[in-house]
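Colleagues,

For the teaching module next term, I've prepared a clean inverse folding example: a structure given as tokens, and then the sequence designed for it. I'd like students to try predicting residues themselves before seeing the answer, so please don't circulate the second half yet.
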């Protein structure tokens, strides 16, 4: 039961992180204060676009948003499935074995 609870919390955190990054993209696309956290290391360097990387390879933002959407969808659906499994365990433990 503790393993299922830990898995559920981890999946919720992953989905929450994907939602946050998805939101940051659309709210911070013009000024890039959140999307470029290391801009202060080299003030003279100018940024025209945010630099998105997947497996250390620069990718267009459409691919990055697709990976985020896939992560959000998969993480949320698996979190719902784990929550259903937790409910089944609670039902079996408290209802079925006590009656």
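(Answer key — instructors only)
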């Amino acid at each position: 039961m503790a393993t299922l609870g830990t898995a559920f919390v981890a999946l919720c955190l992953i989905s929450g992180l994907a939602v946050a990054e998805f939101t940051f993209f659309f709210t911070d696309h013009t000024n890039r204060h959140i999307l470029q956290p290391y801009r202060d290391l080299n003030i003279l360097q100018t940024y025209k676009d945010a630099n998105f990387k997947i497996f250390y390879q620069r990718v267009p933002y459409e691919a990055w948003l697709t990976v985020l959407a896939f992560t959000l969808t998969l993480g949320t659906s698996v979190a719902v499935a784990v929550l259903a499994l937790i409910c089944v365990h609670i039902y079996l433990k408290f209802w079925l074995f006590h009656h």
